[in-house]
Amino acid sequence: MKDIIKVCVAYAIMHAWVFSSGAEELKPKSMTDSVYSIGEVTVTAKSVESLTPHQTISHQQIDNLASSSVADALKYMSGVQIKDYGGLGGQKTVNVRSLGSQHVGVYLDGVRITNAQNGTVDLGKYSLSTLESVSLYNSNKVEQLMMASEYSSASTVYLKTKRPEKTTFTGTLSEGSFGTHRIGATYSYKDYGFIDAQYVHSDGDYPFRYKTEYEDTVGRRRNSDIDMLRLESCLFYKGFEWHTYYFNSYRGLPGGVVRRLSDKYSDVGREWDHNFFSQLSYKKRIKSIGIRGILKYANDELHYRSDYPENMSVHSNNRYHQQDVYGGLSMSYVYSHLSLSASSDLRWSDLTTDVKRFRYVWRMDNKTSLSAIYKYRGLTINGSGLYTRVTDHTYKGGEPLHRYTWDAHVSYDINGKISIRSFYKSVFRAPTLNDLYYTLVGNRNLKPEYTKQYDIGVSYSNEYMTFQIDGYYNRVTDRIVCLPLKGSFQWTMLNYGYTRCMGIDMSANIWYRCHTLFVSGAYQDDRNMTNPEGDDYRDYIAYSPRWTFSAIYSLEWKKLSGSLSYMFVDKRYWTSENAIEEPLSAYSCVDLKVSYRLGKLIAEVECQNIFDKPYEMIQRWPMPGRRYMGTIKIQL
Length: 636
Fold this sequence. Notes:
Layout (H helix, E strand, L loop, with lengths): L1 H18 L11 H4 L3 H4 L12 E5 H6 L5 H5 L5 E5 L7 E5 L7 E5 L2 E2 L18 E8 L16 E7 L6 E9 L3 E10 L3 E10 L4 E5 L4 E5 L5 E12 L2 E14 L15 E18 L2 E17 L11 E19 L2 E16 L7 E16 L2 E15 L7 E14 L3 E12 L3 H5 L11 E13 L3 E20 L6 E22 L2 E14 L18 E11 L2 E10 L17 E12 L2 E8 L7 E3 L2 E2 L4 E9 L1
Parallel strand pairs: 4-7
Antiparallel strand pairs: 1-6, 2-3, 4-5, 6-7, 8-9, 8-33, 9-10, 10-13, 11-12, 13-14, 14-15, 15-16, 16-17, 17-18, 18-19, 19-20, 20-21, 21-22, 22-23, 23-24, 24-25, 25-26, 26-27, 27-28, 28-29, 29-30, 30-33, 31-32
């Protein structure tokens, strides 16, 4: 309650300061200004996308957030849980409605992002600076010309690249807490593309206090530094889109805090990452026929070293190399109220490493889908089927896996403002190469995972707001769970026999003149239902909070812009058996960012965790306290 009062006071001060200049100054200069953000954040009930619960953060809202990565933007969305291992260089993964990070497909301009590290996508590697929007869909988009892989995820995150509206050059220089330095440059050529580069260094040596009933540890994070370079380019031309990305980092992995020992850790490591991909897509419509094709090549290298004298248990020095070649084709046909789509894609992946007794492995993953959308007046119905075949080629490789899954969506639109919707979706997920074969991670006995989702909800929209609320039930069989073992590189993989999660998601966007308010909240009950005779029967799944809430207030006024954001996460258990240890405490965090434009210069100041609240998302990985960042931008 004290945190909420503090947030309200901060909001009141900010609000009063704005209005002190006179209410007449807040009147929009034109009708365009008065509805500035509507097109970015709202999808009307008439859109086919209203079939699926979804949330979108626009480019303007992204600019106003005290954030720098995709994970920072997603954490404010309803039903999302972020695992952050601390500091700027810490790995950041996401799961939605407690279905696990592997069930969240992350798509950049419709092409799925893959990554060799731990079988998950580290969202901390992807910048917000070149994106037009970040969208989260429960289930998936419902539209023509979707690729087959898009139907294979329980939830989907869509990153949409911003096409330049004018020719500009932007240079950025930032200085922040804990020895953080950031420099970036972007050259955009109107309508045709951009080149973007960014270099970041952080010492990551933030102070922390770890206090429980039995201990009180005060120290400073060590071996938490990072140096990272990101290069990105995108070219648009007559239906073609060519996107190339390169990421290079060198970072420390500090490990968890050891009880009663200040600045000491059980195991520490160093990690080198090299990630590259290049993807080419083409999309064309000729009357009632549409066609879309995609080609992609990805190359990921990871070097992990922990053979240091101070480490107590794990000593390794290994390199991992993974390649990925992807091709997909989709076609659609529209006849009257009915549209039909068919798509097929093929992905070849391989994994090599210098680990002893490791056998080279490569995988063929083929997916084929059929989809139909029927629209008549206010009624929209969608049904799709997906066939998946996965084959691993290695020493004593298993039999090929092949499964059929399907989904159905239905929506009814009332007066263009209210939409009632529901969907069912089944998902089959084969263990990744990382799940099965990584040393210190892999478990060759893992079973495939099956998920069934049920959802019913309602959405409402008018000229001032959008609102949606959904109730859902998820049943997961042979759930694959990835838990940290002795560091952010070392994991243990295991299957739960049967888990179920039920909950409610709510989100709303409200805007008036130069003010915007985004609010989201979620309740979920996620439990292990595997063995009625077991000690962990009906226990909560690790790192699944029951309650979450977030709010973002944004202001656009003359040359000034800013945002005040608040996030609350309920307590979470961190073991498979809840009775073994006390849960992690609930936490809240408040961030503030203010920007001011003066000609071609933009000055930004942000403060994260304003009230310096100690908290942790992962057991014994304390997060940074209050931290500042100042930025100067020049736009030519």
